[in-house]
Specification:
Blueprint lengths: L2 E5 L2 E3 L5 E8 L5 E9 L6 E7 L4 E3 L7 E6 L4 E6 L8 E9 L4 E3 L3 E5 L2
Parallel strand pairs: 2-11
Antiparallel strand pairs: 1-3, 3-8, 4-5, 4-9, 5-6, 7-8, 9-10, 9-11
Length: 116
C-alpha cells in the first residue's frame, strides 16, 4: 500500500511564503515523477509543478519564478517552495506520485489560503 502524506499548508498574507512537503511510503519500487496540483473551489484540478526522477522540473506559467519544486530521492519526499503568494494561489494542493509502471497515487490534499 502506497501512502502520500502532505504537510505545510496554512493561512498566509499576500506576498508571503509557504513550503509544502509530501512524503511517500509503502511498496514503492521506482518513482518516475512527483508533482503538485491544486484545485480551487468551483474549478478543475490543475498542474502546478512536476519533477522527474532525473530532476527535470516543469511549472505552470502562473507560478513560474515564484514556486520551486525539489525532491529528496532517499526520503521519497517532494517539496514545493511557494514565494510571493497571491490570493489566486488559494486552493487545496495535492501531491501526485507517478511510478515507472504508470501507476499513480494522490495525497489527501493540504489547504493553502492567501488572504490579508
Amino acid at each position: 500500500q502506497v501512502q502520500l502524506v502532505e504537510s505545510g499548508g496554512g493561512l498566509v498574507q499576500p506576498g508571503g511564503s509557504l513550503r509544502l512537503s509530501c512524503a511517500a511510503s509503502g511498496n514503492i519500487f521506482s518513482i518516475n515523477v512527483m508533482g503538485w496540483y491544486r484545485q480551487a473551489p468551483g474549478k478543475e484540478r490543475e498542474l502546478v509543478a512536476t519533477i522527474t526522477r532525473g530532476g527535470s522540473a516543469n511549472y505552470a506559467d502562473s507560478v513560474k519564478g515564484r514556486f520551486t519544486i525539489s525532491r529528496d530521492s532517499a526520503k521519497k519526499t517532494v517539496y514545493l517552495q511557494m514565494n510571493s503568494l497571491k490570493p489566486e494561489d488559494t486552493a487545496a494542493y495535492y501531491c501526485k506520485l507517478g511510478l515507472v509502471d504508470r501507476t499513480a497515487y494522490w495525497g489527501q490534499g493540504t489547504q493553502v489560503t492567501v488572504s490579508s
